[in-house]
Each structure stands twice: as C-alpha cells, then as structure tokens.
Amino acid sequence: MAKLTSLLTGAALVLGSASASAAVWEIDASHSSASFKIKHLVVANVRGEIGGMKGSIDLDDKNLDKAKVVATLDPATIDTKNADRDKHLRSPDFFNVEKCKEIKFESKTVKGTAPNLKVTGPLTLNCITKDVELTVEGPTAAVKGFKGELHRGFTATTSIDRKDFGISWNKTLDGGGLVIGEKVDITLDIEVVGQEKPAH
Q: What is the DSSP string of 95-126?
C-alpha cells in the first residue's frame, strides 16, 4: 500500500519553477480531508469526515490523461460529532467496519484540461465496488516547502446514492419522508507532496 493513490482523486502537482512535469506525489494526510453531507429529517444536512487517507498520484502534467490515482480511507474513523451516531455508522447497518476495513478509489480514466478534470474509476465502499466520476479542480502550481519538498493541491467532488453500495438502512417519519437521505455529497480536499522524476 506504499504506492496508493488518492480518494476519493486524481490530479497532481507541478514544480513551481522547474521545467520537468512528471512526478509521483504522495497524499499528505495531515493537510487533507474527506468530508460528506447527507440530508437528515428532510430539512437539514448532517456533515461528517472520514480519516486515514493514504494514496499517491503518478502524473505527467503534459499527459494528464495518463495519470494514475489510487486512494484509501479508513471507515472506522468516521466522525459526525455524535458518538452514538458514529457507533451506528460503523455497524453493519452502514459501513460495517469490522468486515469492510477500507474505502478505496482507483482511477480508470482522466479527461479534460487543468484545472477542470473528470476522473472516473471504481469506488469500493461497504465491500461493494461501483464506478463513480469525480469532478476535480486543480492541480495548483507547486510550492516548495521548508525542506525543499514540493506541494500541490486539488479538490475533488462527487455524489453517490448510498443504496448503490448496500447502505440502505432508514426509517419513515410519521408525517412521511425518510430519516436519512439517499444522496451523499462527497468532497476531498487534498494536498500532495512529491519529487521530480529523474530524467530518462
């Protein structure tokens, strides 16, 4: 898993002042986040985050369509700021974290031109795999860190129907409608760190 590439993702970094554009970029988990929102009681959104992000992007800015992205998240880290709800979300009614220990995205196609890209590929959630499309804003220009390392960033968004991934638990309200919505909006804010590939 040392070479995983980013979730829920798929864009990269370029050298701020360098001429070469090919590089492998690792996700900086401490400066990245995966968040989601879903309707509650039909009237409001509940928001949460999932941590443990790992991944990398193999990217050549001159050939973005050949980018390779893989990323994983740890569903056991789900946090909606409510301990009882988070415990329920980890159960077999939802993420079933004892059995399904990771959420994984792997790119299959990359289309468009920076900073507007469409990245498609299989998403594995709750041990079920379905193709999804990510709308990616980025990558930003690369910036050098304090130790000379290179940083870039991008934002990826998508929406899924949780029932497509076997997450169908719900209750009907007395006045009609459902306790939990079916559409889930997902946002990935990702910072990556990389080094230029040696010239061939």
A: T-TTT---EEEE--EEEEETTEEEEEEEEEET
Span 79-100, average pLDDT: 96
Q: 66 pairs with which residues across the strands?
A: none
- Summarize pLDDT for 51-71 with one digit per residue, the tens: 999 999 988 888 899 999 999
Q: What is the DSSP letter of 84?
A: H
Beta strand pairing call for 143-144 and 150-161: antiparallel
Closest by CA position to 189, among listed 23, 5, 37, 53: 53
SS3 (DSSP) at 69: strand
Give the C-alpha distances (Å, rounded to integers) separating 45 from 2, 36, 185.
35, 10, 10
pLDDT band at 176 (very low <50, low <70, confident <90, very high): low
pTM confidence score = 0.82
